[in-house]
Design brief:
Layout (H helix, E strand, L loop, with lengths): L1 E4 L4 E4 L11 E4 L11 E5 L7 E6 L4 E9 L4 E10 L5 E4 L9 E9 L2 E9 L2
Length: 124
């Protein structure tokens, strides 16, 4: 099931699959979730020039994997792979200018059998 929503065109995908991403630093500790427990992912600003802020919501603690893919579907980075508490963490990801050309990228978050994907545009 795929659902499009939000003003920044978040894409929520409910499908199994391996995903991976690498984190330069966590900007905010996980915040408690609002009234509804949901699994979601957002990345911005769009377009990005040097730093991308990736925010996601986890309804419960567990293993999390965040991956970045290029427009050809190749995994180019894996900023996060580990266990996180439930909440809403924000991660700053800095694509390496020498190895990451401008273009379309996808961020994929996997948590307890759920997957969310978000489009990113990188400018140089």
């Amino acid at each position: 099931m795929i659902v499009f929503g939000g003003t920044n065109q978040n894409v929520y995908v409910d499908a199994p699959g391996p995903w991976q991403l690498a984190v330069d630093r966590v900007l905010e500790a996980p915040a408690p979730l609002a009234d509804t427990d949901r699994f979601s992912l957002s990345a911005g600003p769009v377009p990005a020039t040097s730093m991308v802020h990736i925010t996601f919501e986890l309804p419960e603690s567990g293993a999390v994997r965040l991956d970045v893919f290029d427009a050809n579907g190749r995994r180019v980075d894996s900023p996060l792979a580990g266990t996180l508490a439930a909440g809403r963490p924000t991660i700053a990801w800095s694509p390496n200018a020498a190895t990451r050309p401008a273009g379309l990228y996808w961020v994929r978050l996997t948590h307890k059998g759920q997957t969310a994907t978000q489009r990113m545009v990188l400018l140089r």
